[in-house]
Amino acid sequence: MKVLFIGGTGIISSACSRLALERGIDLHHLNRGRSQSLRAVEGVKVLNGDARDFAAAREALGRHEWDAVVDWISFVPEHLRTAHALFRDRTRQFVFISSASAYQTPPARLPVTEDTPLDNPFWQYSRDKIACEDFLWEAQRRDGFPVTIVRPSHTYDRTVLPMEGGYTTVQRMLDGRPVVVHGDGTSIWTLTHHRDFAKGLVGLLGQHKALGQAYHITSDEWLTWNQIYTLVARAFGVEPRLVHVPSEIIARYDEKMGASLLGDKAHSMLFDNSKVKAVVPDFHCEIPFEEGVQEIAAFYRSRPDCCRVDAAVDATFDRLIDAYGR
Question: For the whole prediction, is pTM greater than 0.85?
Answer without folding.
Answer: yes
